[in-house]
Recover the amino acids of this structure.
């Protein structure tokens, strides 16, 4: 709609006509847009954030545009979401076109004043046209988060900080400098309250003059243990070897400690069968059967060559001496006499011509087969050669004999009863070697021992790890090692291993706060390998693999204290007592003598543990002012080590490290 410009004389009438035209015209009250013919309703008017490059205006929230110098050049306007600004032009405007009405809206309040409203975060442009349709102004509109409230809150809550807040679409950017990491964290947490998601805050704050914190940790532990054990170990056996024997015994179990911890005992012991020698091999005269031991010595037979010599005698594969032949016959006589086999013959079938049926089974012995220890070697050679003249019974017997022969080489020599046992009678020095039943017919063996043990133990543990870290940063320290732990085994038998750390460890994150206070997030531990709780795995080949357990003291906490202040962050006071009495029912209740049938196991332990921390705000110094454990240490020469037993010559600190200083209290270990 085109309106005539009124003259100066008709100003009141022109104003009335113009007001009526603004109310009546459909396209003059609201801005046009490329997306929709009508824009959204405007919100409440607010102050606009205009860049310094724009034209200055004495009236707040008003952007006056001078077109005499820039012509139709584009201008930039920055608006917070939900707030508006006024654009004042020196010429009349007829139409306004907003490219993206979802981001911003424009409303014509008069012919030269236009209100621009920020709707949502983003960028768009607004183009202004005069009555002739000529473009007057192109305005780039940027709508973002309102940072004014956050900037005011930061200025009020952190007065010493220099924080600038910038809006980028729906995010807030914090830039500038703060005095500590705590202030930076406060600014970040405050900014997160002005956005929908925490990740919409971009923290670009710089901490000026970051401080470093050294943490000193002391882990002190005292352990006291007491073990007391008292018991009686008694047992007795009556009767000789080879005869019915009876035994009675009472042994203490010491269940608290898992067994007798000491190795000292006192008492009485009797053994009338101290050296029975009725077992294979034939190593000396008197062992084995009555005449077999001397024969083995004369023939040079021992467990290593026994099967070779006897095998050569049977098969004729090698030469054997006359003594070896005699030994082999005697050795095989037991097997020849005991070997027998069962044979089931095939008989002609009475119903089927030419057929056979199984006959009644019978047993073939060496006597029925005509084989003895004197001719068994000849039959063995004929059997191995496949002699067809051997009868079926002889072949069956030789087959059973050869099947039993390998086991006969390794089995203990069978004695005829127990009368042929050879033993040493220590009560008869004139004739100690006796043959017959071993041991006394009355009390054969007896033992009565008093087992007593007492242990007092004291363990002192002191660990003082020190670690330095920058304020706000994490640091870790470990002095120890790693031990392997099997975690799995594949189908090929390969074992996978994972290494676990142990030793003295410290991990902490310091934050220097206002007024010199330090906030600490600490994790410290002292661990050592221990057999208590360890378990054993079979490793094949009869060996085993023992996986040790860890004895661990660990603390994790968050505290706040001043520089140089100490605090005990954890502690433990533990007392444990275990005691049991093992006894034989009935006999333990007998007065006085009942003590012989009781055993006592006692364990008492006391533990005191304290963990103390002390943080310090530290600064770097000259290397000359620092001292190490090896300063001034000189290793002794060979002459001083061999003749005087010294490992070092001297241990003197560098003069610069201790000049003008007075060291007080424990500050290290000195090698003398």
């Amino acid at each position: 709609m085109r309106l005539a410009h009124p003259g100066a004389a008709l100003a009141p009438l022109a104003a009335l006509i113009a007001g009526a035209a603004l109310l009546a015209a459909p396209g003059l009250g609201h801005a046009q847009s490329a997306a929709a013919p009508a824009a959204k309703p405007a919100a409440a008017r607010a102050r606009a954030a205009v860049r310094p490059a724009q034209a200055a205006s004495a009236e707040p929230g008003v952007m006056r545009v001078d077109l005499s110098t820039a012509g139709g050049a584009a201008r930039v306007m920055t608006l917070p979401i939900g707030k508006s600004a006024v654009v004042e032009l020196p010429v009349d405007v007829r139409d306004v076109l907003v490219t993206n009405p979802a981001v911003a809206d424009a409303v014509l309040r008069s012919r030269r004043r236009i209100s621009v409203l920020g709707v949502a975060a983003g960028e768009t442009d607004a183009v202004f046209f005069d009555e002739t349709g000529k473009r007057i102004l192109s305005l780039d509109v940027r709508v973002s988060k309102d940072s004014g409230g956050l900037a005011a809150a930061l200025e009020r809550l952190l007065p010493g900080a220099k924080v600038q807040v910038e809006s980028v679409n729906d995010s807030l950017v914090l830039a500038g400098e703060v005095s500590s990491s705590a202030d930076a964290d406060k600014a970040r947490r405050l900014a997160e309250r002005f956005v929908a998601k925490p990740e919409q805050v971009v923290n670009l704050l710089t901490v000026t003059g970051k401080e470093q914190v050294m943490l000193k940790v002391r882990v002190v532990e005292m352990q006291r243990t007491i073990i007391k054990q008292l018991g009686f170990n008694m047992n007795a056996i009556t009767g000789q070897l080879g005869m019915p024997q009876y035994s009675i015994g009472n042994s203490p179990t010491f269940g608290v400690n898992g067994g007798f911890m000491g190795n000292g005992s006192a008492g009485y012991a009797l053994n009338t069968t101290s050296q029975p020698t009725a077992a294979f091999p034939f190593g000396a005269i008197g062992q084995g059967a009555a005449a077999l031991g001397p024969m083995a010595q004369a023939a040079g037979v021992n467990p290593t060559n026994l099967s070779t010599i006897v095998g050569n005698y049977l098969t004729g594969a090698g030469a054997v001496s006359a003594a070896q032949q005699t030994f082999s016959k005697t050795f095989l006589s037991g097997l020849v006499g005991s070997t027998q086999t069962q044979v089931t013959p095939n008989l002609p079938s009475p119903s089927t011509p030419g057929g056979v049926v199984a006959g009644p089974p019978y047993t073939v012995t060496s006597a029925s087969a005509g084989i003895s220890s004197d001719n068994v070697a000849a039959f063995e050679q004929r059997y191995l050669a496949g002699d067809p003249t051997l009868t079926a019974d002889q072949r069956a017997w030789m087959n059973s004999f050869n099947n039993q022969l390998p086991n006969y080489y390794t089995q203990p020599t069978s004695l005829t009863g127990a009368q042929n046992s050879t033993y040493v009678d220590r009560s008869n020095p004139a004739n100690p070697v006796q043959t017959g039943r071993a041991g006394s017919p009355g009390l054969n063996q007896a033992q009565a021992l008093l087992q007593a043990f007492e242990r007092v133990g004291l363990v002192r543990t002191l660990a003082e790890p020190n670690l330095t870290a920058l304020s706000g940063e994490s640091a870790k320290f470990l002095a120890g090692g790693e031990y392997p732990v099997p975690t799995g085994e594949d189908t090929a038998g390969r074992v996978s291993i994972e290494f676990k750390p142990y030793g003295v460890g410290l991990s902490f994150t310091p934050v220097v706060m206002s007024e010199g206070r330090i906030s600490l997030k600490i994790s410290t531990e002292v661990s050592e390998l221990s057999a208590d709780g360890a378990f054993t795995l079979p490793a094949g080949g009869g060996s085993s693999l023992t996986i040790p357990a860890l004895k661990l003291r660990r603390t994790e906490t968050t505290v706040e204290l001043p520089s140089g202040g100490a605090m005990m962050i954890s502690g433990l006071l533990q007392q444990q007592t275990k005691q049991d009495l093992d006894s034989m029912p009935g006999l333990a209740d007998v007065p006085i003598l009942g003590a012989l049938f009781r055993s006592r196991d006692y364990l008492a332990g006391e533990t005191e543990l304290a963990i103390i921390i002390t943080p310090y705000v530290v600064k770097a110094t000259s290397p000359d002012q620092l001292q190490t454990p090896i300063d001034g240490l000189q290793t002794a020469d060979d002459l001083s080590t061999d003749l005087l037993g010294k490992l070092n010559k001297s241990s003197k600190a560098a003069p610069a490290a201790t000049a003008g200083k007075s060291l007080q209290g424990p500050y290290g270990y000195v090698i003398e």
